[in-house]
Hints:
6 helices, alpha/beta
Amino acid sequence: MYKLTDYDYYLPEELIAQEPIDKRDQSRLLVMYKDTDLIEHRHFKDIIKYLKPNDTLVLNETKVLPARIFGIRQNTGAKIEVLLLKQLSADRWEVLVKPGKRAQVGDKILFYNDQQQQLMAADILEKTDVGGRILQFKYQGSFLEILDRIGAMPLPPYIKKELQDKQRYQTVYAQVEGSAAAPTAGLHFTPELLQQLKDKGINIAKILLHVGLGTFRPVNVDDIREHAMHSEYYEISPQAADTINQTKRRGGRVIAVGTTSVRTLETTADERGMVHAGSGYTDIFIYPGYVFKCVDAMVTNFHLPKSTLMMLISALAGREKILATYKVAVEQKYRFFSFGDAMLII
């Protein structure tokens, strides 16, 4: 249960979703019951049938930055790609660079718009322990406005097709910019579906976790317990905490949308399952053997083999049941990964 190979499965390449479907809530939904062997096949809009009044649906309202920017090294003119990972202070960021070998401490990177006007520069201050860099950006005006002009969405490498509408890599409830990747389980919701859920008496609680690439970093150790997660910034407001805690007190279910919501809730929950308002950084790593304190159910996409995300859902539903369910998903030709279909674990 702690070996990396225990979280591998067979996935035909043609099931990896290369682009989003036309309508968000028309994705397919596999419903998996934790306590039985029952599996149901629905469309995502049918999720309303499985949620009850007084349940609380927890959404991560982080917004993806156009965090992939292209510049040139000042001293050579060589092209370099920068991916923003984590804001360390006002203008200092942890980033990944490509090609990494050419980006040395002391170098300066220049960034231009399509008219070859320089909009921004960055000094490479230091290297990180995972091959990244720390950059100090210099610019005039608004950093976010400059990113919006020159940046691209940081789509996962398995998505080969260019995204025609970059808003399709944002949830409809995204509010706070800061993520290097989307909390993709939430991509299936529409404003109309969220309103229908509210009308049924289902509570909505919005929390925040800025997704870094550490969540998706490959596990490279045979014993998964030796894997170290990168920390990510989270916030839970007093209002969200109160909504979630009232649900627990009434005996309702807390249903997390995505692994990021799960990790945030479990980071702040006490042994009674009550979450605490506040902010900070979490590097929680959830794998089988973990005892959940707050989360009762979750909405999730289908994840990469041998990933920490597979390990988290295996902790919630059982490794053997998850692998058996994934085998069914492959047989039924569900679409996998970020733009794929969804699973409801209840």
